[in-house]
Design a protein that fits this description.
With 495 residues, the protein is of the alpha/beta class. 38% of the residues lie in helices and 23% in strands. Bound molecules: nicotinamide-adenine-dinucleotide. The site of nicotinamide-adenine-dinucleotide has 29 residues, from helix 8 and helix 9.
Length: 495
């Protein structure tokens, strides 16, 4: 049985807590490895390593830090297939999805390569007579990242690329469900020449995460995961005076107006709802069909589901893989039954699809005539279940999006520019798509939702990531007038 270690002070460190968790292959249901679960002592060792590496790393010139990031980027690029395979092996998503995740992660490293430019401050000459004022941004110290199972390469890179480029050291606590990718990232950082201790990994569960958040030498916490835990992480970090960005769950709506191109909207709905088995925080889980397009849209989606190929992520042609665990699959499946009992219409029941073996597979489900008071509408299901809500008007559709508990992403499909413009202006949501089903911002913008999808005031990566991982300092300076200076500056009046 393979044991997945921590990574502390530049090398792999075997777990010593005596606790470990099984890591499954979701496509077969078999246990393929064991991951160490860190105790407080091991978390402390990682933070001590990070803290002692910090002073020298923050004094490393910007150009040298950028060079490390460029080399890291090159190594990620060269090993992208290996990374994608590691993701598929433990998460289960199909290889093309995993490769997409790696590519989106690399974009964040590319952004961080520009750190000399990103950390430029402001300068005001002569704010007063002889007085100059200027600002600079400095690293915060040790930053911690706690990440979810659904993007084991991309989400850590959302955080650590900018944090490290800004001169911080970093401790990652990845998801215990798919922990191997974190060790690959650590090895590539080391190969890129990142000094030991600047990037560390502690494997573990909620206990390790809590110890990391509580550690007095951790100054900043980035968290991505479910809403109840995000809320708790934010509250406990903030109570200890730390800066925290805690991204939570989602219930993303796709509004389809009657003038939308039916096939385009149906294709988009299917890929955004069922891609990665719906285990994406930007997955579409509610389709709001406005006016008379609803019946045709539901029919078009149903016919596409019938052709959807569900199978192991490594199988050529597979479009949707298994869910992360058997328990999660059963929980997702229970929502189909619940929807039926709440009075919705189950158009496609994913539980009816049969799979060989013991993998954590579940077919795609489509539920129509869903009402806002139903649990299938309100809860984050995080699986391949798409609900269709029928709205009479554009305003009713906007009202649904704006009163939902979550506000991560939403999108509109229409050919009407005026309607799209009203949507982008009136919708209360962090990330908005216009004829784009999954509007994840590029790396030079920032990612984040509103309401229960984000606790804290900083979105993640991009410009807000740079701000989050640095503190600003403003210097007000006065120098003697050269005419009265006692030092010979070479001015004629001093001669
Ligand atoms: P999760 O909340 O169960 O776990 C996330 C991380 O928190 C893991 O590393 C886990 O070990 C750790 N954790 C568990 N208990 C903890 C505790 N008490 N204190 C601190 N940390 C604790 O989430 P998950 O199941 O791994 O991921 C799926 C969830 O993540 C979904 O809700 C999804 O919407 C959300 N997500 C959000 C975004 C976003 O950007 N908003 C992105 C990806 C995933």
């Amino acid at each position: 049985m393979r044991d997945i270690p921590h990574w502390i002070a530049g090398e792999a460190a075997e777990g010593r807590s005596g606790r470990s968790a099984d890591v499954f292959d979701p496509a077969t249901g078999e246990i393929q490895a064991r991951v160490a679960l860190a105790n407080e002592e091991e978390v402390n060792a990682a933070v001590v390593a990070a803290r002692s590496a910090f002073e020298s790393w923050r004094s490393t010139p910007l150009s040298a830090r950028a060079e490390v990031m460029f080399r890291f980027r090159g190594l990620l690029e060269a090993r992208r297939e290996e990374l994608a395979r590691a993701v598929t092996a433990e998460h289960g998503k199909v290889l093309a999805d995993a490769a997409g995740e790696v590519a989106r992660g690399i974009e964040n490293v590319e952004y961080a390569c520009g750190v000399p430019n990103l950390l430029k401050g402001g300068f005001s000459e002569m704010a007063s007579k002889g007085v100059d004022v200027y600002s600079m941004r400095q690293p915060v110290g040790v930053a911690a990242g706690i990440t979810p199972f659904n993007f084991p390469v991309m989400v850590p890179l959302w955080m650590c690329a900018n944090a490290i480029a800004c001169g911080n050291s970093f401790v990652l606590k990845p998801s215990e469900r798919d922990p191997s990718a974190s060790i690959l990232l650590a090895e590539l950082f080391a190969e890129a020449g990142l000094p030991a201790g600047v990037f560390n990994v502690v494997q573990g569960d909620g206990d390790a995460a809590a110890a990391l958040i509580a550690h007095p030498d951790v100054s900043a916490v980035s968290f991505v995961g479910s809403t109840p835990i995000a809320r708790r992480v934010y509250e406990s970090g903030a109570q200890q005076g730390k800066r925290v960005q805690a991204l939570g769950g989602a219930k993303n709506h796709m509004v389809v107006l009657p003038d939308a191109e039916l096939d385009v909207a149906a294709d988009a709905a299917v890929s955004a709802a069922y891609g990665s088995a719906g285990e994406r925080c930007m997955a579409i889980s509610v389709l709001v069909a406005v006016g008379d397009i609803a019946d045709d849209l539901a029919t078009a989606i149903r016919s596409r589901i019938e052709k959807l190929r569900v199978g192991p992520g490594t199988e050529s042609g597979a479009e949707m893989g298994p869910l992360i665990t058997a328990e999660h699959r059963d929980r997702v499946a229970s929502y189909v039954e619940l929807a039926k009992s709440e009075g919705a219409t189950v158009v496609v029941d994913g539980r009816e699809q049969r799979f060989e073996g013991s993998g954590f597979f579940l077919g795609a489900s489509l539920i129509d005539h869903v009402k806002p008071e139903m649990r299938v509408y309100r809860d984050e299901i995080f699986g391949p279940v798409l609900s269709v809500v029928r709205a009479e008007s554009f305003d009713e559709a906007i009202g649904l999006v704006n009163t939902n508990e979550y506000a991560n992403g939403c999108t509109i499909f229409t050919r009407d520019g005026g309607a799209a413009q009203r949507f982008q202006s009136q919708v209360e949501c962090g990330m908005v798509g216009i004829n784009v089903p999954i509007p994840v911002p590029v790396a030079y913008y920032s990612f984040g939702g509103w309401r229960s999808s984000l606790f804290g005031d900083s979105h993640i990566y991009g410009p807000e990531g740079i701000q989050f991982y640095t503190r600003s300092k403003v210097v007000t300076s006065r120098w003697p007038d050269p005419a009265t200076s006692r030092v010979d500056l070479g001015f004629p009046q001093n001669r």
